[in-house]
Amino acid sequence: xxxSPCILVTGxxxxxxxLEMLANYQIVFAGSAPTEEVLIALCEKHQPLAIIVxxxxxxxxxxxxxxxxxxxxxxxxxxxxxxxxxxxxxxxRVCSAPGANAAAVAEHTWAMILACAKSVRRLDHRLKQGxxxxxxxxxxxxxxxxxxxxxxxxxxxxxAAIGRAIGMQVIAYDPWAKTFPEECKSVGFNQLxxxxxxxxxxxxxxxxxxxxxNHEALSLCKPGTILVxxxxxxxIDENALVQALQDGTISSxxxxxFTTEPLTAPHxxxxxxxxxxxxxxxxxxxxxxxxMATVAAKNVLxxxxxxxx
Length: 309
Prior knowledge:
By secondary structure, the chain is of the alpha/beta class. It has helices at residues 16-21, 36-46, 60-64, 84-89, 102-117, 120-128, 154-166, 189-195, 215-218, 238-247, 286-308, and strands at 6-9, 26-29, 50-53, 71-74, 93-95, 146-150, 169-173, 184-186, 198-201, 225-229, 250-255, 275-277. The model has no long low-confidence stretch (mean pLDDT 96).
């Protein structure tokens, strides 16, 4: 609706179910890789009441470009890409969709864990080159091994349940968790690093935990540990991880998020056979795409309604 109030989407698409919910608004798409300058220009032109954040970061400059802005709604759970202090100062509500992509992220996490433990990519590559490694290859059997989870929210709990179903012992570090499932033991950060055979990250990124997986943390890990990150790239000191992968402390790493995104070639991970990467898509499935969009849309409608009344 061209003359209706505007909602800006920092992406090139939105689930049709969400678009139906927002039918009374003009929807403007910023594209799949919007820069700060592009978003500022769109805000100045369209004066959106709301921004639905799929890609990119939302800075104070972007907020100031649209004095009409009332709500910033994340298409997903991670709001570290939004300057929350700036939003609070301007009385702009920040919302997210916690749990909407939990199943998708948990499943992708396990795809990565199993791919590392069973050398899926390497064996596929070798066999296609004509090598039959049946006599020499031994995969890592996960039954009886220790799965260490950093963060035990909706995603971490799903990952824990699958780990227990496989027969792993599950430990977790989460100082904010009020309860722990019976099958999951609460431990300290250093104890988790020292004990776990597989470490999987499932916590939000904050100023306090930025680069929590650094040289000191990695030095505590068992030789041959598998490290998986489907949370935020900023949780890992990538230089420290490279060293740990080279010296065997970490046998393999699977990364779905990175300190700087998007990755552009050439990048360090292209040269490392023991690193599996995916383009920050763990939370995007056919089902979660709809759930994240509709929750984000509902958050927008609720916030606009409350600020209007």
